[in-house]
Amino acid sequence: MQRAALGSTTAGRKGFRRHRAVTLTAAALAASLVLTACGSGGSDEPAGDALEVWIYQDASIKVQEAAVDRFNEKSDVKVKLVPVPGESYQDRMRTAMGTSNAPDIFFNWGGGSIRSFVEEDMLVDLTPEFEADADLSSAFIPSILESAKIDGKYYGVPMRGMQPVILFYNKEVFKKAGNEQPPSDWKELLTLIDVFKEQGVTPFALAGTDAWTELMWVEYLLDRIGGAEVFNKIRSGDSEAWGDPAVLKTAETIRDLVDRGAFGNTFQSVDYTSDGASTLFAKGKAAMHLMGSWEYSNQQTNQPDFAEKGLDWVTFPEFPGGKGSTGNVVGNPANFWSINSKLEGKEREAAIEFVKTAADEEYVEEMVDNGEVPATTNAENMLIGHPAPGYALFQYDLVRDASSFTLSWDQALPAQQATPMLTNIQKLFNKQLSPEEFVEEMKSLK
C-alpha cells in the first residue's frame, strides 16, 4: 500500500502524556532523602513488597520491561514485572484472582476476559481517571477503549499494539491466475474461488485444527451480514440473539464456502501453531489467508522473501444486502492493563500512574520500534519509523477509521460460553452440525 510522505513527527506527537509521575517523583525524592539521612543502602531492585505486574510472556515484553524501569526510577512505590508463560496465562490469572496470590496489575484482553472480575468487584474502575485526565482520555482510539468497557465503565488501559484480522493475499498467485485484484465484494470472492480451483490452488488457507482460525470467518461474516449490533447483543448477555436471522445466514454461508472447496479438502488437518497454513500460503499452495495482523511478522520471520515481495493485504469484502459496513473490523483491538481493587492508598495511586504510562510518548515510540502498531490517536506520524511502514499505516488507518472494532468472540465471551462456541464452530466447518443445528446449539449457551 502506497502512502504520501508524512510531515514532521513532532506535530504528530502533540497531546501525548508527559511526566505523569510528577507527584510520585516528588514523593520519591523526599523518601530518598530520608533514606540517605538514615544511611540505608541503595538498590536498583524493587523492594520485596513491590506491586506485581503480570504479563503474557512473549517477544514484545521488552517494551514493558523498559516502562517498569522508567517508572521505578521516579516512584517510591515500585512495580515488578512477572512474565507468565503464554500457554498457561489465562488459567493462572483466573485461578489467582480473588486469592492472596492475585496480581496487583495484570495484562488482559478486555471484554469477557475480565467481566467476571468486574462482577465480583475485583477491578478498579478507571472511568474517573479518564474523565479527569484530558490527555489520557484523548490518547487512545475510541473503538479500542470500548473493548475494556464493562457496563459503561472503563477497566483497562491499552498497553499493546492493535491486532485486527486482515485478508492477506499472495500477489504471485493472483498474477499467475490473470487476476491481480483482491475481492472487494462477495460476488468477486466467489468468482475467485472457482478461478483458483481451476489453477489447482486452494483459494483460502485455513488451519482447521485450530478452531479460533475458523472463528475469524464467522466473526466477519456475521458483521458484514447483520452488522456489529448482533454480536453486541450476544456479548451483553442476550443468548436469544443467536437466533437472529443473520446468524443462520452466516452459518449457511460457511457451509456454502466449505462445499465450494474454498478451503480445500484437507483443512481439518492443517494447523497454525507449527506454521502449516502460513507455509501453504507463502509457497503458493493457497491464494489468500484470513488471519490476525501478526501474520505479517510471522511471514517475515519464516518466509522473509515472500513477506517482502509476494505478500499483500486488503479489508474483508462486503456482503450483498448486508447491514455491516466494510469499515467494521474484528480481532483483538489491543491488550490492556487492569488493576486489582484490593490495592488502597498510595499503592492504588501508584498502580494507576503506572498503567497511565502506556500513553506516554516514549512508551509509544518503543512500541513502534518493536514492530507494533499503537492504539494511540497520535501514533500515525511515528509509523514512518516502523519496520514495515506501509503495512503499519494500513492497519492504523483501518482501525482508526473503523465504525466498530469487535473483540474476538472467544475473548469477548465468558469462558463457559467461549469454549463450547469454538467447538460448535469447528463442527459447523466439519459438517458435523447443519447451519440450523449450529444456531440451536449457540442459543443454548448461557
From TrEMBL:
InterPro entries: Bact_solute-bd_prot1, SBP
The protein's name in its UniProt record: Sugar-binding protein
